[in-house]
Amino acid sequence: MGPVTGPATGPAMGSSEHHASEPLIRLRGLTRTFQRGPMEVRAVRGVDLDVARGEFVAIMGRSGSGKSTLLQLLGALDRPTSGRYELDGDDVFAAGDRKLSRLRAERIGFVFQTFHLLDELTVLENVRLPFSYRSESRGDAKRRALAALHRVGLGARLLHTPNTLSGGEMQRVAIARALVVEPDLILADEPTGNLDEETSEEILALFEGLHADGATIILVTHDPDVAARASRVMRMHEGQIELIGLTESA
Asked: Is the pTM value of this prediction over 0.70?
């Protein structure tokens, strides 16, 4: 990975062009503690962080460092023990479970290492799934799903099922599903972890293209070469962010 600028203290902001606007994401004192038998595990410990709209951020760290737990909190898949998370000025965890479900369906796109596609559905039906939680008409949902699949280069695979696709194609379907609702934020957890080098390069190029089009992306990875594709990298250790800086691609 290319060099990062020196360690930062306090909340980190993006590049200078974003300083004038409010951050899309603001974390203050975010903490997540688990009870495992008699032991208390502090997976995330008082994280303060700002992420500007349009940034591409990579979170690195060893297994158990807290990076995946932090991503779950950012995706409102888990609630913090304490602290505050604002998404575009809204206090995320002030909402009840129903509003959190709507937030996940309408404002956050998820891309996972293991794809999470339904084998009994076609590619098109998998990408239309997020509209199960929204009020769009079937016609509009189909139109937007088609547009998302063409964007990731799968316009010719609409009626295939996931078990007929390669790993790279399945990840493209997962990315299209994340894009279809035009989310404020895309969260990716080790999106190249199950892919070979050539296919990983294709998926990372796709993320770079999304970033160039203005998407806000936060990606968790253990691979420094993957992290180098982001505009900003942060490293987590024992639940805290220890280093934040810009990569050479910024």
From this structure: yes
